């Protein structure tokens, strides 16, 4: 069974890329089809893989200003050919599901229906186009939204990464799906006996991540906060932060494991579809204080592995931290909860699903 993997943009290492990395563990001989590829920004993780990179990757400005080329991306993703493959597996947050399998079995692992097309929120307003170019979005997005719905009818089967995403796949694309949560290396992310007196935030520093709310809360609390990660908000957040807030920049996985394991708690202020970092933290045995929406509701058990704050505000975060009592949590119980998301369980579920569907497809 020859597998073609399809992914949109390999220019960062986030949750979707971790899923893709696990697909390559299942099918090490698969060929990876991507629109853009940046080995440096993905830290060489995908260098050993066979790759077919789109013609757009070599165009001037596409890496620096990819949003200027949004209108071209449907045609680019449709240009990939899969004549020599048996199965197409797309790892999709936006365009990858639109790959035309042309009679081959196509299974889509969907991280989210395309957010900038279907979610009218701050992520769309702040992340897609700056104010001087908003007119460009108003011009092209309606047509891309129509394409996105049509493209979503192409895959034969969908795998959603959470109940939250499953419901939105049904709402926006009118498609059914099964759920296989994204993988975490629970052997690597393990507890340690050594503990320190700080709270932790980790991830990309972008507006939709709401790290600014945590900084504001800890400015008032005066408690020690460590922030691991980088992004467009880094300099702005540094200016706002008090001396009790430490910015670590991007850290290695080895350092991240230690940061999780030694923290009092992990704070997750964003509304996300899955939130792999929530499970990584729990795998290290530490409780999570999360905004009570999205995928966090599926991965945190209130009172057992963490707590929720009901409003996405600095005041709500401040109250959650004030009320937090680390002595009520059992690190081993927290870790056992996280182990159901282990990468080996994920790999086996995905392998079994694809093989079953391929056998049925051949008949």
Automatic annotation (TrEMBL):
Gene3D superfamilies: Glycogen Phosphorylase B (3.40.50.2000). InterPro entries: Glyco_trans_1, Glyco_trans_4-like_N, Glycosyltransferase_grp1. PANTHER family: SULFOQUINOVOSYL TRANSFERASE SQD2. GO terms for molecular function: glycosyltransferase activity. It comes from the Bacteria. Residues 189-325 form the Glycosyl transferase family domain. This is Glycosyl transferase family 1 domain-containing protein. SUPFAM superfamilies: UDP-Glycosyltransferase/glycogen phosphorylase. Residues 14-187 form the Glycosyltransferase subfamily 4-like N-terminal domain. Pfam families: Glyco_transf_4 (PF13439), Glycos_transf_1 (PF00534).
């Amino acid at each position: 069974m020859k597998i073609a993997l399809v992914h949109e943009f390999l220019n960062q290492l986030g949750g979707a890329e971790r899923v893709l990395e696990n697909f390559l563990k299942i099918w090490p001989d698969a060929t990876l089809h991507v629109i853009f590829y940046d080995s440096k920004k993905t830290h060489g993780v995908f260098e050993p893989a066979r790759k077919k990179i789109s013609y757009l990757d070599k165009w001037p400005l596409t890496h620096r200003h990819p949003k200027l080329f949004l209108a071209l991306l449907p045609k680019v993703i449709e240009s990939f050919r899969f004549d020599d493959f048996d199965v197409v597996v797309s790892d999709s947050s936006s365009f990858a599901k639109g790959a035309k399998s042309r009679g081959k079995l196509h299974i889509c692992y969907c991280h989210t229906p395309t957010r900038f097309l279907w979610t009218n929120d701050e992520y769309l307003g702040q992340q897609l186009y700056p104010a001087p170019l908003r007119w460009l979005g108003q011009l092209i997005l309606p047509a891309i939204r129509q394409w996105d719905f049509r493209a979503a009818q192409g895959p034969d089967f969908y795998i959603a990464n959470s109940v939250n995403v499953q419901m939105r796949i049904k709402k926006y694309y009118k498609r059914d799906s099964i759920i296989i949560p994204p993988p975490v290396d629970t052997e690597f992310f393990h507890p340690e006996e050594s503990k320190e007196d700080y709270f932790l935030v980790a991830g990309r520093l972008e507006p939709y991540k709401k790290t600014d709310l945590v900084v504001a809360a800890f400015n008032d609390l005066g408690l020690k906060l460590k922030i691991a990660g980088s992004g467009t908000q880094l300099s702005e957040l540094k200016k706002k932060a008090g001396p009790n807030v430490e910015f670590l920049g991007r850290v290695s996985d080895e350092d991240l494991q230690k940061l999780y394991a030694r923290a009092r708690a992990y704070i997750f202020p964003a509304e996300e579809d899955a939130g792999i970092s929530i499970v990584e933290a729990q795998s290290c045995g530490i409780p999570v204080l999360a905004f009570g929406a999205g995928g966090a509701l599926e991965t945190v058990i209130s009172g057992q592995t963490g707590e929720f704050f009901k409003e996405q505000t600095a005041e709500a975060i401040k109250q959650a931290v004030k009320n937090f009592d680390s002595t009520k949590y059992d690190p081993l119980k927290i870790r056992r909860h996280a182990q159901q998301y282990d990468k080996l369980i994920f790999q086996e579920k995905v392998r079994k699903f694809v093989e079953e569907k391929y056998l049925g497809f051949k008949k």
